[in-house]
Design goal:
9-stranded antiparallel beta sheet, 36% helix, 36% strand, 2 domains, Porin, 3 helices
Length: 185
């Protein structure tokens, strides 16, 4: 009889130990989930996720390049409005050629055409940005948005004439036309 009671005691002891171990494991899992720690993902699933991300990034890159090519060899007449005061609006011409941007009025001030970054957002809106600098005329920061149909553009210019003088403008396109590829002006 003692052997049976001792055996039942050992079984109870082992069962209690397993129950406690399972409880600790379950609490650990819940606390990891609450902390946002993900359970390990099998390598095969990670490969599928990584491949899907790679494909999405590649599709985005291809689409952005297509937009860049559509923007290349275009000329946009823009109207600039000084943000700090109501005044006379100025017009200028932005040219996208050979994957660079040039602004006619700023080329005359010593700002050469520059490279630009291009990002295509959801909905097809293309955002371009560039910084142009001139030894004698300061720094110009441009940011423009082009509608998905590639027919309208608007944006902001922050022109830092010197350390103390900044002129901020908004601009919008008046017209757009295709130009022939070839040497820059």
């Amino acid at each position: 009889m003692r052997a049976i009671i001792a055996g039942l005691g050992v079984i109870a002891f082992l069962s209690l130990g397993l129950f406690q171990a399972e409880t600790v494991w379950a609490r650990s899992k819940k606390s990891k989930e609450a902390a946002g720690v993900e359970a390990p993902v099998p390598k095969e699933s990670k490969k599928k996720v990584d491949k899907a991300k790679e494909q999405a990034l590649e599709a985005q890159r291809v689409f952005t390049e297509k937009v860049r090519q559509g923007l290349n060899n275009t000329e946009w007449e823009i109207e600039l409005s000084l943000l700090s005061a109501k005044g006379k609006k100025e017009s200028d011409i932005i040219t996208f050629k050979e994957n660079q941007i040039g602004v006619a009025g700023f080329v005359k001030k010593g700002f050469p055409p520059t490279n630009y970054t291009l990002t295509v957002q959801d909905g097809g809106i293309a955002v371009w940005e560039t910084m142009q600098s001139s030894d004698k005329s300061g720094i110009a920061f441009w940011r423009g948005e082009i509608d998905a149909d590639m027919q309208r553009m608007h944006g902001i210019l922050s022109y830092h004439v010197d350390d103390k003088t900044t002129r901020d403008y908004s601009f919008s396109s008046i017209s757009r036309k295709d130009i022939s590829p070839g040497p820059s002006k």
